[in-house]
Write a structure and sequence with these properties.
The structure holds 2 protein chains of 2 kinds.
Chain A lengths: L2 H13 L5 H7 L5 H24 L6 H8 L2 H34 L5 H16 L3 H27 L6 H9 L7 H9 L7 H4 L12 H26 L10 H7 L11 H31 L4 E2 L2 E2 L1 H19 L2 H34 L1
Antiparallel strand pairs in A: 1-2
Chain B lengths: L1 H13 L13 E10 L8 E8 L12 E8 L2 H12 L2 E3 L5 E5 L8 H9 L8 E6 L2 H6 L10 H8 L13 H9 L6 E8 L2 E11 L2 E6 L1 H12 L5 E6 L2 E17 L6 E15 L8 H25 L7 H8 L4 H11 L4 E12 L5
Parallel strand pairs in B: 1-4, 1-5, 5-6, 6-7, 12-13
Antiparallel strand pairs in B: 1-2, 2-3, 7-8, 8-9, 10-11, 11-12
The chains are: A mainly alpha, B alpha/beta.
């Protein structure tokens, strides 16, 4: 398998910390969150298996080409349009959250418009790049930050001040009422495979279908990842106290001390690493969304230059900047929860659609 | 036309580089320690003292000078605003590594004041906390000999990069706040005293509902640290008729389980100690090493037993037995918590200490 595919899968596992996943899970910490996570993991692994294998049956083709070839035109364009918007929403959530984190932890004196402009200019420029180049950017960022992030995760685990009893309280509530929000939030860590919708265009070689063994491995890594992002903040801030924190992981990073690290406060290293992760995550999402939406919109040329992508990206930037004002943190959080549930629905629909398409393609 | 777009975009990006958000380092005052006291003649409000380090421009003489500003206000932020007006520089809390609560402040619930510390982004969650005796300001004002940077001595005490002593109880802000908020575990604070122009940090206090509930003496503090953090850089004193020796501990492990029986629930506390004899006032006999182990076990068992019973008597729980109960039982949190509160006063402690004296040292 292509190593770039692994990068795409890992990306979301890292980005979930910014995408408010820990906050949703922590809100339901006394509501059967453990079982919800396992349901989320099982569901997303099923989606993963079906979607990735069906995409690999069409080497070198993206989802727009496949959908257009096998479904009626009205369905293809409306479906692709909605899916494209979903990718943009995912990018928007990451961006809005990280803008808020920047304002809160890095520089509260900066105006939010200014910060939004700064991040959007990088993300939009990235989204307009060629598909191949975004992957290279992803590789560079992951190679630099993944070892350090793993190091911080490990460091946080081996701290004598970590309270294992607080975490065990959560396990006691494994079988209480299960909430669909936490199922959706848990599945977010796995949705990296959806980027195949566009990135499959680059994987031109015929690959063998994914084995169950590989899916299980992803499942184990992902489960460990979700439990890390849920449990460690609880271990540091307490089962009753954690509910007050807006960004549990950033407050947790502040509670880790590295006497002989580069900087004693891990928070700053963590912030630095997560600037990279959130920007590349937003870039990849918005690039995928852009490519999908581009395929259904008419092309609009001026002096032999395609202007449609720029118009779409500008629209996205405007919506993000407006959302800054009309979607404050509390509302964004509610919106994200709806998005997580929507993610489950889309996954379900996509799975059936792909099974159907693969059957038609065989005939 | 289009090549210019890139240049224009680049120029627009350059305009973002104007740095009005940050202030230069010489326009900042670095707060190293904050002290909070109760004002003497007012009912409400706090006395906030900030210890501000004055950097020196000469690298040979490190900046050991500092100033202390004190203001009284209803909330911490109001007092900080007032101090800001005095200092002339932007106050920077990024290097504030020590928070001292005055002893008198701890007579009332301090949960309220913790809000400022957890809400502010620039306060380190890894700042050390402690209680100052007689006042927090006295601790801030003290300038012990050999201190090369303001408050550095305190950081060395608590940071475990300098001294490592079982009498010094380290507690971080995040840990203190967690134990304050969580039901089933009570926070503790080391007590910092001043004696002959030096710090003395050998005792600690345990808080209940945000108030000072019990003060431990030196030996109890030591036992607590050994149990709570499995602190192994410790010496145990064995004193019996015609024998007096010190055991230097190499490794220690302390585990407990809550056992619920029909009659009386009890906590089984298993402590394993490995060590060597460091100093003895008598000639020791290598063949009698089992006897010595037995002596250590007896001494330490009673010490632990007394400490745990003292906690129980005052119904404080710094070890987190309640949290362990919540972690190992089913049911709603409210019901479990109520049940635990009825169990704890009747709880028995069964302490088992196992000692393994590896040698009597280099000599017999």
């Amino acid at each position: 398998m292509n190593r770039y595919f692994h990068y795409l899968v890992i990306l979301n596992m890292l980005a979930n910390v910014v995408a408010l996943v820990p906050k949703v899970l922590i809100e339901h910490r006394l509501n059967g969150v453990v079982v919800s996570i396992f349901i989320g993991v099982a569901l997303s692994l099923l989606f993963f298996y079906v979607f990735a294998n069906s995409m690999f049956k069409f080497p070198g083709k993206g989802e727009p080409e496949i959908i257009k070839a096998y479904t009626p035109k009205w369905f293809a364009s409306s479906y692709l349009f909605i899916i494209g918007i979903f990718y943009f929403i995912a990018a928007g959530i990451i961006l809005l959250t990280f803008i808020d984190i920047t304002l809160r932890f890095i520089n509260p004196d900066m105006s939010s418009l200014y910060t939004a402009f700064l991040f959007l200019s990088i993300v939009c420029a990235g989204a307009l790049m060629k598909t191949e180049k975004t992957l290279y950017a992803l590789e560079i960022i992951l190679v630099i930050s993944l070892p350090l992030i793993l190091g911080i995760f490990l460091k946080s685990l081996f701290n004598p001040y970590l309270s294992w009893d607080s975490m065990k309280v959560i396990v006691q509530h494994s079988f209480d009422s299960i909430s669909i929000e936490s199922v959706g939030a848990a599945s977010y860590s796995f949705v990296g495979f959806y980027y195949l919708a566009i990135y499959n265009r680059l994987f031109t070689e015929k690959v063998k279908p994914i084995k169950i063994r590989y899916i299980l491995l992803i499942g184990i890594v992902g489960t460990v990842n979700i439990f890390t992002s849920l449990m460690i903040p609880i271990g540091y801030n307490g089962v009753d106290g954690i509910g007050d924190f807006n960004y549990p992981w950033f407050s947790t990073a502040d509670a880790i001390r590295m006497e002989f690290g580069f900087i004693e406060r891990v928070l700053f290293i963590f912030l630095l690493l997560y600037i990279g992760i959130s920007i590349i995550s937003a870039t990849i999402s918005s690039h995928t969304g852009l490519e999908i939406i581009k395929s259904v919109l008419p092309s609009f040329k001026w002096k032999n230059r395609e202007l449609m992508p720029i118009i779409v990206i500008l629209l996205f930037s405007m919506v993000t900047i407006l959302a800054q004002y009309y979607l404050p943190q509390g509302k964004l959080y509610e919106f994200t929860k709806i998005f997580f549930i929507g993610l489950l629905g889309v996954g379900m629909f996509k799975t059936f659609l792909m099974i159907w398409i693969v059957r038609r393609a065989k005939k | 036309m289009f090549p210019y777009i890139k240049i224009i975009f680049f120029l627009v990006l350059c305009s973002l580089l104007v740095s009005c958000g940050f202030k230069d380092i010489d326009k900042r005052s670095f707060v190293v320690t904050i002290g909070i006291d109760k004002p003497e003649n007012k009912e409400e409000g706090y006395d906030i003292s900030l210890k501000i380090a004055l950097p020196s421009s000469d690298p040979k003489t490190q900046g050991e000078e500092f100033i202390i500003h004190t203001e009284t206000a209803r909330t911490v932020s109001e007092a900080v605003r007032l101090i800001k007006a005095k200092s002339g520089n932007e106050l920077d809390f990024g290097h504030m590594k020590m928070i001292v609560f005055g002893e008198k402040l701890l007579q009332e619930d301090i949960t309220q004041i913790m809000d400022w510390f957890t809400r502010r982004r620039d306060i380190q969650k890894i700042a050390f906390v402690g209680s100052g005796k007689p006042t927090a300001k006295a601790i801030l004002e003290l300038k012990p000999k050999g201190e090369r940077l303001p408050s550095n001595k305190l950081f060395l005490f608590f940071g475990e990069t300098g001294t490592e002593s079982p009498y010094v109880t380290t507690n971080y802000l995040f840990h203190f706040y967690r134990n304050l908020m969580d039901r089933g575990i009570d926070p503790y604070l080391p007590i910092i005293e001043t004696k002959n122009e030096e710090f003395e940090i050998t005792t600690m206090s345990v808080l209940k509902n945000g108030k000072n509930a019990i003060v431990l003496d030196k030996e109890e503090t030591k036992t607590f640290n050994v149990l709570n953090r499995e602190y192994d850089k410790v010496n145990l004193k064995i004193e019996q008729e015609n024998i007096y020796f010190m055991l230097s501990v190499d490794s220690i492990s302390a585990e407990y389980t809550i056992v619920e029986t029909k009659n009386i629930p009890y906590i089984e506390y298993d402590v394993n100690i490995k060590g060597i004899i460091e100093e003895s006032l008598q000639q020791l006999d290598n063949t009698k090493i089992d006897e010595y182990s037995k002596m250590v076990e007896d001494v330490f068992t009673t010490e632990i037993q007394n400490l745990l019973e003292k906690f129980q008597e005052k119904s404080v729980d710094p070890m987190g037995f309640g949290l362990r109960y919540r972690a190992t039982h089913n049911g709603t949190e409210e019901a479990k918590w109520k049940k635990w509160q009825s169990i704890y006063p009747a709880l028995q402690f069964r302490v088992k200490v196992q000692t393994d004296i590896k040698s009597t040292g280099i000599i017999e």
